[in-house]
Amino acid sequence: MADLTTIILTFNEEKNIANAINSVKSFSKRIVVVDSFSTDKTVEIAKSLGAEVIQHPFENQAKQFIYALDSLIIETQWIMRLDADEMISKEAEKEIEEICLLNEDTDINGIVVRFEVNFLGKKLRHGGIYPFRKMIVYKKDKGYMEDRAMDEHIVLKEGQSVELKHDSYPVSYTHLTLPT
Description:
eight-stranded mixed beta sheet; single chain; 4 helices; disordered C terminus; globular
């Protein structure tokens, strides 16, 4: 098991939270859900799957994640920020665990995760959008979350990042309206 804490931000994610938690359970030492006072069964489901749950009023994604970092005592070397509608694939899970274990004392301080992109239930493979890449795993003292209202990213203070070879899923864009 990787020396890793996974933080998942939620609001009314009862349809997604079990998949997100189950996709990281086998390699995360700790899973924390930061919930924005959901009115559905998100909190109940998260707790039933062994996640810790803290609640905080939502302002934006960055502030929620920063709140978690400031409020929690995180003793693991690595931190992962996972969206509630994302799942780490079995292949990516093995890669993340291996990278964390092999780079405890190296300057590899971040892991860029590749995501399959779906639109209206179909995989997008063209147009420069695939794969969607974002650094969601980093060494606790080697990175930080940008404090931005949107398009926030984890930024490394030092060292390098590596990109996974395998995709995770889904990053769903079904809520977007296509131009006519």
